[in-house]
Amino acid sequence: MGEVRVSDVSGAGTSRSSWPVLLVVVCAQTLIWLDTSVLNIAVTTLADPADGLGATPAELEWVASAYTLVFAGALFAGGALADRFGPRTTLLAGLALFGAASGAGAFADSPGWLIAARAVMGAGSALLMPATLSVIVQTTPEERRTRAIAIWSSSSGLGVAVGPVVGGALLSNFWWGSVFLVNVPIVVLCMAGVAAVVPELRAPRRRQLDLPGMALSVLGLGGVVYGIIELGNGRTWYGPHVLLPLVLGGGLLAAFVTGQRTSPAPSLDVRLFRQPGFAAGSVVLLISFMALAGHLFYAAFYLQGPRGLSPADAGTVMIAAAIGIVLGSQASPAMSRWLTARWTVAAGVLATAVTYIAYAWLDGGTPIWFVAALLWIQGFGMGLVGTPVTAVMMRGVPPQLAGAGSAVNSVTRQVGGTLGVAMAGSILSGVYRARMSDAELPSGGGRLSAAAEEQARTSAEAARSLAGSLRLPELATTADRAFLDAMYAATLSIAALALVGFAVSVVGLRTRAAEPQSAPAKAESA
């Protein structure tokens, strides 16, 4: 990518090759998303009292949710800190915090300790993610920025898809803590790379910290995400555990947005949303990652449930999605030049919607190669979406607000993923219970007690476990049939959501190509 002089930003008067910089920040970005997904494979082991921590289902939910809650809640604060102290400093701080928490989590001796470590890991990720995109925006020439964002965007999808593979391989050879301990050497390498090649990138005037705004954004997003998590845990939407945090969080976010309009040093410049491309791009990213996370949630259960694959084998199948994401991200710049960003994004969203619809025809005998093909198409479609949308969103963001703009981009991805899992989980649970409540379960001559029957009607995994221990294959067959019905309902809902994203991309991304700046405009931008 050549040499990029950063003296106009940092005042350091140095120049660095942007390729090593890109490699380092992509490594850090991949680590974030890898850890987001790698835990999915470890939950069964963590529930085992002998080989794991004996965690209850509620504790397992919070092992995963604590990370998401803090991550999403602190992202705006992370963007503001990146703009204040520079993305290089924020990257190093985030990596150090993430690595220390990973080491502590690996040797946790109780679920509560692991939940706390996961929360601190979320705080480290909130510092990392806005800083990685901010570095790319500030160190890459505009004519090459789309390609750099394509590589950055593909790293997120790669981490999500490869996480189950890495987790399965580690659990097959080591103890459960290895899925967290593996982060430590990667963090050390990333920190060494950041210190060696990432330049200081600071605006001529240091941005003031908006402490009240940061507090409102953290508490507001935290409240909303907490309510979403509780909804996904089977709570009713009008119950206090869901409605109260949603209302309070929404009120705090409303106060945050109102205050940002008059704040002299806003954490979020709400004027960014006056740009149609930025606003529409945020909605498309939110919907796309909501659909992706929800789909991967029930796809993992489908592969390990009705198809009977091991965690490692299921992760291997899902590599197809990772390959598709990488190839789609790399193809998106050329397609954007040919079709425009608007139609490239629309084509990607439509492709994913088609794969979601196709899941309504899968059953326990569908060839695995066909499932892998659907995952590849889905991944390729997501690859076409992320890069052009991010480029359109960041096109009008000034360098001194790159961290704040990056935070918006990151928040939409993370909150979208949380919403998607909550949506898919609620539909799966509700439809499965309804189908099982209407089914007549085999008793096996009285071997299935009332308590065991209730477990089977609540969870397909519990039903299969009981079927194996009590030698009742009919029970597993009934549970699989009920799960497939639930998956059909979930996947058609996800497909409808993706079609909404398709409509938004067609209508809202009608932005003109960036025009060459005049000399005064370039000077003002610098």
CA(first)-CA(last) distance = 20 Å
> On the 0-100 scale, what is the average pLDDT?
76
Main sheet makeup:
2 strands, antiparallel
Morphology = globular
SSE sequence, one letter per element: EHEHHHHHHHHHHHHHHHHHH
The DSSP helix count reads 19
User: Taking strands numbered 1, 2, ... along the chain, how are they ordered across the largest sheet?
Assistant: 1-2
Unreliable runs, pLDDT <50, ≥5 residues?
1-17, 512-526
- Give me the secondary-structure category: mainly alpha
Percent range of helical residues: over 70%
Query: What Rg, in angstroms, do the CA atoms define?
Result: 23 Å
DSSP E strands, number: 2
The proportion of residues in beta strands is: under 5%
